[in-house]
Prior knowledge:
heterodimer, A: alpha/beta, two-stranded antiparallel sheet, 9 strands, globular, disordered N terminus, B: alpha+beta, 7 helices, 13% strand
Amino acid sequence: xxxxxxxxxxxxxxxxxxxxxxxxxxxxxxxxxxxxxxxxxxxxxxxxxxxxxxxxxxxxxxxxxxxxxxxxxxxxxxxxxxxxxxxxxxxxxxxxxxxxxxxxxxxxxxxxxxxxxxxxxxxxxxxxxxxxxxxxxxxxxxxxxxxxxxxxxxxxxxxxxxxxxxxxxxxxxxxxxxxxxxxxxxx
Amino acid sequence: xxxxxxxxxxxxxxxxxxxxxxxxxxxxxxxxxxxxxxxxxxxxxxxxxxxxxxxxxxxxxxxxxxxxxxxxxxxxxxxxxxxxxxxxxxxxxxxxxxxxxxxxxxxxxxxxxxxxxxxxxxxxxxxxxxxxxxxxxxxxxxxxxxxxxxxxxxxxxxxxxxxxxxxxxxxxxxxxxxxxxxxx
Lengths: 187, 184
């Protein structure tokens, strides 16, 4: 098929994903058939955006099922995880229930793929999101991003490292402040 | 399952691990597995054949990677293998669990403990108190840190093995690793 050629071309193209340092575009998407979630709701703590191509991938290598298991670690680092695909809210809710997922799946459904496009991770030819990860800091700035080959579950090690780097920076900042207090007390 | 980005095993295989085969074997194969995962049950049979073929050249290490929210019995089974391990029969239980993957509920777990003539009172108490939950979680997180993204996942001498785990390609990869150690 002609599209195969186009596909491989697209895979070889450098990623257009928004790089670290960029302000993360805000969005409001359905998290359930009757609820909406905005990125700005989580200002003040880190957010993980996990764009993925589609619900219902095979179970044992399923990226969302893996993140579900790592959720306590994400929580420990005070981070909110949001999965995003172009599937509709009803599809997400069936998938969440089937996989027992304990985090929100957002429907980038209408206009289709608009949020993915804003983040530079929409695959126009396939009509789905890339398998792309963004870690956004407490101020809404992208701290880390990664685009995986579409068939490869990128795991969670990169996310954890990015979150830990963020919390180390925060601690260093707090530590400096505490240091000042301690000096003041000693005087 | 599909694995990609080349990653190294952290921490490396050590005394804390359940290992079969000589500590100074040329090759160490580490598996991250889930007792309720059907792919792992298939890989279990392959690993057995690999162990036979490699003999003393291979040390096999098993670490837990239960996907507890899609496999409701995976955590209990992992803890049961640890409880059996505390009584010196980790591998016997490991084998029983994979050979009876469709029956991993608590009642069956106790049945396997009886079959292995374990102190079942202790076994049951340790399962009820989740004595080995932390240990299982440590294994899981070491897998996450090492880039494991599904089960089964294999590491050969600390390097993630991305190839097929059918018998021929897995055995070939292990034999190449064994030869490269000799050459070094």
